[in-house]
Task: structure prediction
Amino acid sequence: EAQVTQNPRYLITVTGKKLTVTCSQNMNHEYMSWYRQDPGLGLRQIYYSMNVEVTDKGDVPEGYKVSRKEKRNFPLILESPSPNQTSLYFCASSHRVRGETQYFGPGTRLLVL
Amino acid sequence: KQEVTQIPAALSVPEGENLVLNCSFTDSAIYNLQWFRQDPGKGLTSLLLIQSSQREQTSGRLNASLDKSSGRSTLYIAASQPGDSATYLCAVIAAGNKLTFGGGTRVLVKP
Result:
């Protein structure tokens, strides 16, 4: 089954404790990205990757890091989480061809105390 | 900077009525427009993708139109059912495959 998976689905942590949210897709997509969703602010792009070893900032990259060492995986790293990073996070992927349908993961709900 | 607006923010209709959801965007330089459905606490499910060269796209009871020159898209859902209750999001795709989302329309279909 074609899918985008994220782990963990739910996470409670404390300020400053490094964490990683994994994202994996099995559709051989070149393009992957991370979004966060907040009430009243909607969905905003954090980082994206056009292919292996190619990443770039989205609209709200502060406080986040990403890496793309393999085509299927695109982890989101919070080196020192803060309460304002409490949010619902989504990973998405698509083929690199312009305008392809984007597929979303199920989301990771993060609470930073 | 691209801005996407969805009006109304919430909509309540009786079962069987047709739904009309609106989406407007400020920059017409888009590759395509995608409509999503999101259930509470869940991920996004892609409903329809309209290429910038297309005027409309249909899937079952869903029909989406696109008028790129005026910066508008409309999602029609025929003969609504309680299972259609969800938040509907539109997003435009531009350079870099980046999605810019609207704020969504929360739909409630009453039995």
Remarks:
- The mean pLDDT of chain A is 94.
